[in-house]
Amino acid sequence: MAKQTDNYFNIDGILATQEKIPCKVELPIYRLGYLDSSSDSDDLLPGTKLELPYWMARGLCSRRRHIVSIEMPKQYREGYREILTADATVVDLHQLGPYFYSFGTDLLNFDHPEVNDIAKCLIKTMQTRIRTIMDSSQNSFKLDTSSITSKLDEMEKHLFNAGQHGLTEFQKWETRETEKLVTSEMVKKHRKRKRIMMETS
Amino acid sequence: MFAEKALELIRELKRCVDGTMSPYNEDAVRQVLDEMKALFEHNQRDVSAAVAGESELYSSVHLRHAGLERNKRCLLAYLYNRLENIKKMRWEFGSVLPADIKYNLCEQEVQWFNKYNKMLANYMRSIGDAGGLDLTQDMKPPKTLYVEVRCLVDHGEFETQDGNILVLKKNSQHFLLRSECEHLIRQGILEHCVH
Amino acid sequence: MSSDTDEMGGDTEEEVMTAAEVLEKLEEAWLNEKFSPDLLETKTDLVECMLEQITAMEENIQRAKKGDFKISIHRMEIDRIRYVLSSYLRIRLKKIEDFTAYILHQESQRKEEDSPLLSPEEYKFAKEYQTSVEGHFNSLALRHMPANSQTLDHKLTVIQPNLDNYIFLRVNEDTQGILIEEETLDTGEEIVDLEKGDQHIMRYRPLAPHVASSAVSLI
User: Fold this and answer.
1) Got a GO cellular component term for this one (chain B) (predicted)?
2) Which fold has domain A2-19+73-174?
3) In chain B, which among 44-103 make CB contacts under 8 A with chain A?
4) Domain spans of chain A?
């Protein structure tokens, strides 16, 4: 099943695939030693350990190629998995992420022994946290949400905002505010920016 | 690390909040294309050598190829997402872009806006047999036939469907058919007064 | 609807529907289009019918005496119909823009006897839109890229609607034997029967053909 961030043009998809993976060089990679900032060598020699972004690691470690081998990043390893199993709702997934789910799902593409456990952990974490996110999105007012959203991963933030949006739309409908025709948000913000620019010039 | 400049373009997009567009980053785009050229040339050299027998160079080729693909993806995504914003502008601002927004677009983006405008107009005109349907109107479900509005800025003369001529002077109030002034409300020229 | 505009002819093959019935069908098409992830079959006959209805009502307004109460009724009805029509076509346009290559490909694979996905005008727009976007990519990026990178890899860049989205639906006709989960190593296949009047939330993919046949409506 494809996820939205797999879309070639999706900004979050690109940012999520930039997340780093610990790698070990298996075959020599000549003339690209400069990618390892900690070494002076012209080449990346077998045994070298370095962190590479997911998109690069994926190109070098697949069924067809084994130029590097990978380790799962620590936030997906057993230690953190146990923390999440204990109580996922208190964990700061923005810090562990911010693309915890998206990157985590991408990691499942690697042929690695921990893949099944990671998959289970992702599902369990999401199931546990979703309830709290849903409840808080339906019960908070716009003002104090940053303390809630600051601990959410990007996907959870989207969900939270969708929940908030639904809530405000419903409230507007209840108070008949939806009947009022309004200036387009874009136009309003544009006017505001223009006014600020003119005042400061 | 490869594609760092390309990633900057994406970060730039992520930073832009609804309604704003940063100036077209011609500099960064050129640097991305330059990096792609360099990666390609290094690869050509290594592939020739590999084919001639130095097969251990293939690992480097794969790595640079990944870098090429990444640069390409970031650059295309940069262009694509900016087009999405430009489209949004057509639907929110109308067929004329405010000058300061236009300033942030590169020439080809301005041309694309005009093309989109034209395509859209042609399509809307072709709906049905009788002159078409303006899809940029009627954005919200109609609640009332007439609306009371207050004018926010001087907008000159306005002819109603019934043939009356009104002067839309700042702060003047009018009672108009919703359908004929909805777009003026969305543009911030009139304000809908509800009681 | 007023007695002036009671009967409205649809296609010669279809039975004659009243304008009210056409509007109801249009509203159903509108909601289905709104809630389905992919583009549904075009309903140009409904659109054209309602546009003719609007024209007829506008003529009535011109003919009527100034101050006649009928004018307001007609005007409100016109506003309402125009809103549904515009919204319906806007939703379709957005999908056409989001999934241009995918939709054009689907349309090219369509068999003669199947209903078209796009109206002729939408098809024209889709083609022009695709050309303009690809042309834009080409002029600013692709043609400046190294030789092997100058084309769009369609496997990567074609964006598809997510047919696994969940949707709310109302069952219009009893429908048996819908396969909603295929057999896997861990679970057996899951087949459901839907009863008229039921409301459910389900994945869109297995329901798609039943939306097209009006057996279910999206809400």
Assistant:
1) GINS complex
2) Methane Monooxygenase Hydroxylase; Chain G, domain 1 (1.20.58)
3) 46, 56-57, 59-60, 62-67, 69-70, 73-74, 76-77, 80-81, 88-89, 92-93, 98, 100-101
4) 2-19+73-174
